Amino acid sequence: MILRVIHVASGREWRGGQRQVWLLARELARRCEVEQVVLTGAGTELARRLHGAGVRVREVSWRAGLDPRALAGVLTEARRNPAILHAHDGHAVTLAGVGAALMGRPLVVTRRVDFPLRRAGFWRRADRVIAVSQAVADALIADGITRDRITVVHSGIAVEVTRAAARLGIRERLGLPGTARIAANVAALVPHKDHALLLHTAHRLAPRFPSLHWVIAGEGAERRALEALRDGLSLKDRVHLVGQVDEPQRLIADADIFVMCSRAEGLGTSVLEAMALGIPIASTSAGGLPEMLRRGAGLLVPPEQPDALADAVARILDQPGLGAALAAQAGLEVQRFTAGRMAEEVASVYRSCASLH
């Protein structure tokens, strides 16, 4: 059976969700049973990378979230062949949902965050809902999505490619001495990632670890507020907001520790990259993070508690044996989160609804 799939992903940013669409489509392209096209915004990083991976892309003008030009592209692709429509973000859900309803096609939607739905709409009408963690699935059930339509498919990474990543050389780039210790974080600067917690943690640890520098990769609306907080805590020389990093695994490879500070998190693929690279992890227990780390692959603390996070970071930095044990277990656990496994499980979801409508 040939599985024909139209992926719909707005792609206006290049963050974890867009990276997952790219990895999924790249893996599915290796399967003879799948014929796919990705409909996304023209000129986006997602479109560029998909072209580079040999995936068929339909680039459309997609400026507003519900751009009618993007809907026209969805309908054109849906008319070509009977196909499953797979929406990968909130804006895409509405456009793919309208297309599926008008053309009588099955609708698959992916949910990547664990906070409540603003509007249930097509989320409740979808034939299948893919949740990237059990935490996301639980949030969907609380919002009234029936359990039988939800499938948990954990996000994945290209483990071996990640492990082969060349180091970025962040110490040299920032003019730091070779003896500087690096605590890395990779996340968009948005409220639920709670970088304020990271800054308060850094403030508590500054006297104890004078050579420790914190490097935060990501952009977002919180940047100015975080810069102000950083400067107010006298951390300007110790906390470095380096903006978007195209290949974040190269930064993570430079780190002595990876620190995740979210108060809400669907899964967190930057954590998977740290696991693959053998970098010990201190993390909050928000959302799906324990699903990666609970079996001794990292130290978990409650969200929004800087004293607890500071203690976890200090334990790893003070105890090389603990860091090595965490990294070794993480190296085993990350094998459950490969891009190939993710693609196989998504293909299974497609098979389950291929005969619908």
Please characterize this protein's 3D structure.
The structure is a single chain. The protein is an alpha/beta fold and 357 residues long. The chain folds into 2 domains: 3-156 and 338-353, Rossmann fold (3-Layer(aba) Sandwich); 160-337, 3-Layer(aba) Sandwich (Rossmann fold). It has 16 helices and 13 strands. The chain has helices at 16-28, 45-52, 68-80, 90-103, 121-125, 134-142, 159-163, 170-174, 195-205, 223-232, 248-253, 269-277, 289-293, 306-318, 320-333, 339-353; strands at residues 3-8, 34-41, 57-60, 84-87, 107-111, 128-131, 150-152, 181-186, 212-217, 239-243, 257-260, 281-284, 299-301. It has a 7-stranded parallel β-sheet with strand order 3-2-1-4-5-6-7, sandwiched between helices. Helix 1 (16-28) links the parallel strand 1 (3-8) and strand 2. Helix 3 (68-80) crosses helix 4, helix 9 (195-205) packs across helix 14 and helix 14 crosses helix 15. The radius of gyration is 21 Å and the shape is elongated. The two termini are 16 Å apart.
Set down the secondary structure blueprint.
Layout: E1 3-8, H1 16-28, E2 34-41, H2 45-52, E3 57-60, H3 68-80, E4 84-87, H4 90-103, E5 107-111, H5 121-125, E6 128-131, H6 134-142, E7 150-152, H7 159-163, H8 170-174, E8 181-186, H9 195-205, E9 212-217, H10 223-232, E10 239-243, H11 248-253, E11 257-260, H12 269-277, E12 281-284, H13 289-293, E13 299-301, H14 306-318, H15 320-333, H16 339-353
Parallel strand pairs: 1-2, 1-4, 2-3, 4-5, 5-6, 6-7, 8-9, 8-11, 9-10, 11-12, 12-13
